[in-house]
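Please, why this fold?
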Amino acid sequence: LRGRAGFEAGRPGPAQLGSTPPAGSRDAGGSARVTSANSIDGGGGDMASERDVRARLQRAGQEHLLRFYAELAPGPRAALLAELELLDPDALREHCQRAAAACARSPGPLPDLAARLRPLPPERTGSASRSDPETRRLWEEEGFRQIALNKVAVLLLAGGQGTRLGVTYPKGMYQVGLPSQKTLYQLQAERIQRMEQLAGERHGTRSTIPWYIMTSEFTLEPTAQFFKEHDFFHLDPGDVVMFEQRMLPAVAFDGRAILERKDKVAMAPDGNGGLYCALADHQILEDMERRGVEFVHVYCVDNILVRLADPIFIGFCVLRGADCGAKVVEKAYAEEPVGVVCQVDGAPQVVEYSELSPETARLRAPDGGLLYRAGNICNHFFTRGFLQLVTRELEPLLKPHVAVKKVPHVDAEGNPVKPLKPNGIKMEKFVFDVFPFAKNFVAFEVLREEEFSPLKNADSADRDTPTTARRALLAQHYRWALQAGARFLDACGTQLPELPCPPCGVDPPAICEISPLVSCSGEVS
């Protein structure tokens, strides 16, 4: 477990706002290991005085954060001063001003985007389903070779809570109602084990795929405890490295940082693009280098169908000489709310669905499909060298995005308020913001029904729910069983009709769950 205090001030570019809890404060016990680094905050050493902190806040235009200070007991006073001491005044002022200005800009399609937009050229793309079997075999062979050489790691983006699912714990701990009652974390851990086994059997080696897990202040402790309680799902604890991304203050529409309580600033994770600062903060790339890792498969926690260290994807990217790659799925319809992987001014980029005009989104290619159909699914390939370049030189160039949220706060009298409508701004960076910096970017199209079913909403919603995720996995396993020659019988012994593609919104004819330890992509042992 890796925690670190402070905000970045010593790397190229302007001082950057952000904080994580002090190193060593989140030891989960057991096999978890805690490493620390020197504080790089704007204070340092001894606790700052109220006068010092107040002067810094005045410089930032945020003195209101101490308005309840006189009412606090000694403990909460010290906690508030410690939190505020970590915030560089110049960076805090810039952060709050930028958030308010960005929020004030009119949302919607960018007026000049259509003329600058192009689909990715064919030489930058590949497809799991449209390629011939021999090509797929070569990709898979290369991917397994790299895994067997212990050159592949997986990196999980797991900073989000399950708030939209109606739970307070991390999404990875969620069960969607499978017969096995496995959580997302367990499914992913078992897929790693299976991939290590397959690579080892092919090449006669002991293969290890390190699992790096980026958490947030909200998810680190419960995730670490969950892994400990489940014996790390039989993975070597030394190959599971959890680290924490930075937190940024939430900002009101008037540009003032929000107090969550009288003694606490409202903080939020800095988005999955906070990965790059977190890699540097916790020396993750140095850890990868010591292990010999050269290629990193990055993915988001909530996709129940994700294939970890997918050898076909890894092999495709390696043989293409890519430094950065993205898995994509074909958009289901023009208005589907997913980002599109394309080119803007000749550089690879993800354009958010809200940035595309309806006319542009509906454009058709010569084959009759959508012209901009490569839907982003937060499933990426990076070389370690590219990640080193980003963390050392390019991260300060990433521009934050605006997310308008409901932020719990205290009112002018200090009473807690749970807002019914959005009242604050959270500034985030996205993991795909680095795509334009890639020298050789590639996109790899996969079938949605095989590799993408996100879990984002409670079952009261009409999409991306526990029910849709569960049905997607069970339908996949039902197809795999049929392909392997299985036949399903009803209670009377009559063979059930085969239905490889059940209609949307219904369970397959037979409920069949296959453990990832048996098969993680339909392969037959």
